[in-house]
Amino acid sequence: MANDTHVLDSPPPGARPDWTISQNWGAYTAEEHATWDTLFARQAKLLPGRASNAWLKGLDVLRLDRPGIPDFEQLSDRLEKLTGWRVVAVPGLVPDDVFFDHMANRRFVAGNFIRRPDQLDYLQEPDVFHDVFGHVPMLADPVFADYLAAYGRGGQRALGLDALKYLGRLYWYTVEFGLIAEPEGLRIYGSGIVSSYAESRFALDDPSPNRIMLDLARVMRTEYRIDDFQQNYFVIPSVDELLRLTVETDFAPLYEQLKQQPDIPVAQIEPGDEVLTHGTQEYARSKTS
Ligand code: PHE
Ligand code: FE
User: Which SUPFAM superfamilies does this one have (predicted)?
Assistant: First the structure.
C-alpha cells in the first residue's frame, strides 16, 4: 500500500530518481526460486474455481506458471503488449506521489525480494510473490488495467484534496481484497487474497466475514485491518461496473461529504447494505477472547 508512514523522503542510494531499482534477477539464489515454486504450486492448486476468470486468464497469458521468480523485463514485455503496463522494481515502500505517478503511467511497482522459507504463510511487507502473483495477472485484463491507471490519477488528485484515507480504502477493498460475483458464483480478484493460502479459502468459504455488495461511499468510510483476515469483503458485479462507477463519479464532492461522516468499524453492517453474507464474526472473536 502507498499510505504507510515509514518511508524515506528521497530515493535510497543506488535507486534512480523515480525510485526504481534493477530487479537484479540474476542475483536470486536457487533457494529463493524454490520458495516461489513452493508458493506457486500451493496456490495454483487452490485457485481454479476460486479466483476470478480474469485473474486465471492473466496467469495463463503471462505464462506465470514457468518455474522460478519471473524476470520483470520479460514479464513486462508480454504485459505491455496486452494492456500497456510494465512491472518495475522498487526498494520497499515509496512515497505516495511516486507510487501514484508510476501507477497513472501504467508502471506497477513491485518489491524484488522474496519471503524466507519460514514465512510462507504470513508476512506484512509485500514481497515479489504477493506483488507479481497477486497483482500482475489482473493487469492483463484491459478493463482492470484501465481501472488501476485511473486509480493512479485519482491518487494524484486525492493528495491535493487531503483525501487519501478515503481513496486508500477503495484500493484496499478492491485491488487488495476484492471479491467478484461471476455467473458461476463468488470469486476472488483481490491480490491479498489470491496470494494467501489461508485467506483464499477463508474469504469465500468461512461463515465469519461479512460479504457486501460494493458501494463507493460505504467502502470509503470503512476501516480495515492489516494484521489478520478481513472482517468485511466487498463484492463487485463485474470489472466493467467497477471501472464505470469509479470513472463516472467525481470524487471531490464525495470526499467533502465523507469528511462530515463517521468512519464505519470493520465488522459493522449499515442500514443500506446489500448483504450477501451476514458474517458470524466467529473467527475474529476467537482471536480476541
Ligand atoms: N473518479 C475519481 C476522481 O474523481 C478518480 C478515480 C478513478 C479513482 C478510478 C479511483 C478509481 O477522483
Ligand atoms: Fe498489494
Answer: Aromatic aminoacid monoxygenases, catalytic and oligomerization domains
